[in-house]
Amino acid sequence: MTTDTTTQDTAPGAAASGETVLDARGVTMRFGGLTAVRGVDLTVNSGEIVGLIGPNGAGKTTFFNCLTGLYVPTEGEVRYKGQVLPPKSFKVTAAGIARTFQNIRLFANMTVLENVLVGRHTRTKEGLWSALLRGPGFHRAEAASRARAMELLQFVGLEHKAEHLARNLPYGEQRKLEIARALASEPGLLLLDEPTAGMNPQETRATEELVFAIRDKGIAVLVIEHDMRFIFNLCDRVAVLVQGEKLIEGDSATVQGDERVIAAYLGEPFENAPGDEEVAEVEAAEAHAEATTDAASGKENDR
Ligand SMILES: Nc1ncnc2c1ncn2[C@@H]1O[C@H](COP(=O)(O)OP(=O)(O)OP(=O)(O)O)[C@@H](O)[C@H]1O
After folding, report:
1. Where are the domains of the chain?
2. End-to-end distance of the chain based on CA atoms, in angstroms?
3. Are 230 and 21 in contact (CB under 8 A)?
4. pLDDT band at 104 (very low <50, low <70, confident <90, very high)
5. Which of 97, 203, 226, 242 has the most crowded Cβ, counting Cβ within 10 A?
6. 88: nearest Cα among 71, 105, 73, 102
7. CA 236 / ligand 1 centre spacing (Å)
8. Where does the record place the region Disordered (predicted)?
9. Domain 20-266's class?
10. Which range among 61-65, 170-174, 274-278 has the greatest average pLDDT?
11. Interhelix angle 201-216/171-183, nearest 10 degrees
12. Alpha helix (H) ranges present in the chain?
């Protein structure tokens, strides 16, 4: 993987420094009687890595789906570089927002290179006739696409696996491939949904470096993650969603130190919660029950 963050070219979709890339205002998403996201405002500026955290079921993925045209928000508006986004995911991708998914969505029986080439379809201009006739224009465009796809594979450190089937890659590399495929649409904003889920600490560290390198290419990043160390190392700003609402937004130190965030994750102690004595009593009873069961099964085995 390339981690030299000073020499890389800027991606075509990259935004001018400091420009507001994403501007989500009052986003609400209801499913029948359930309000999964309620009046959430969030901006992401160029050059930023912003984190979105919150307990399970807080509405993070639903919010991502509202940003990427998978869901049309019940209320609110999402703008990308000042333009209201169209309510279709392929149009959102064409506009400049790419994403990865919590559950990896690769074409398992296609090669690594082919997966990245699929990601380029919003950026290739060759039409149906050109493809069918396979004229010089088509061949030129195809060669350029392959060259760009190989560049992206090199960027994520998978160029040596270009001809492997996606399904044969280890899990961590599948996640990298998803990122390369998302980058193939030349986005100005990349949304990552739990990019380190299922990774070991080394893979997580490598993903952190990869996200920094993506940011240094001029692509803003919004990332959902449960790994707090990853989020607080990585992000310039972190927003916390709890039960669909934004609880707080700020830099890592502010969010980490906020008691409401700690309470939201750990659960506040409730009235009449058992004290130490009751807990000790229950544990002793459980230990006794376990010992009795073990002894009984030992007798069974002796027979
Ligand atoms: N398509 C849907 N239809 C109905 N309810 C949904 C739908 N999608 C999500 N929900 C509900 O909306 C709430 C928020 O879910 P969401 O997946 O956005 O949370 P999350 O913060 O991403 O959780 P996790 O961290 O576990 O991925 C949950 O109560 C979920 O059950």
Report:
1. 20-266, 277-303
2. 60
3. no
4. confident
5. 97
6. 71
7. 26
8. 275-303
9. alpha beta
10. 61-65
11. 10
12. 60-67, 89-95, 112-119, 128-133, 136-156, 171-183, 201-216, 228-234, 252-256, 259-266, 276-302
Q: How many helices (H) and strands (E) does the chain have?
A: 11, 10
- pLDDT per residue as tens digits for the range 206-225: 999 999 999 999 999 999 99
Whether 37 lines ligand 1, by a CB cut-off of 6 Å, is no
Token pair listed for 213 = 């390198």
Q: Is there an atom of ligand 1 within 6 Å of 57 CB? A: yes
- To 5 degrees, how large is the angle CA 250–CA 209–CA 40? 30
In 3-state terms, what secondary structure has residue 290? Answer: helix
pLDDT in the model for residue 300: 45
Do β-strands 189-193 and 220-224 pair in parallel, antiparallel, or remain unpaired?
parallel
Q: For residues 229 and 6, give the distance between their C-alpha atoms in angstroms, rounded to a whole number.
A: 25
Residue 287: CB partners within 8 Å, gap ≥ 6? none
CB 154 within 8 A of CB 116: no
> Could you tell me the two tokens for 29?
């998403």
Q: CB 214: neighbour CB atoms within 10 A?
A: 24
Q: How large is the ipTM?
A: 0.96
If you take atom 7 of ligand 1, which residue's CA is the nearest one? Answer: 31
Neighbours of 204 (CB within 10 A): 19
162 near 147, Cβ under 8 Å?
no
**What is d(CA 168, CA 222) in angstroms, rounded to the nearest whole number?**
29
User: In the numeric block, which tokens belong to residue 282?
Assistant: 């229950």
157: which DSSP letter?
A: T
Q: Which two tokens stand for residue 204?
A: 């997580």
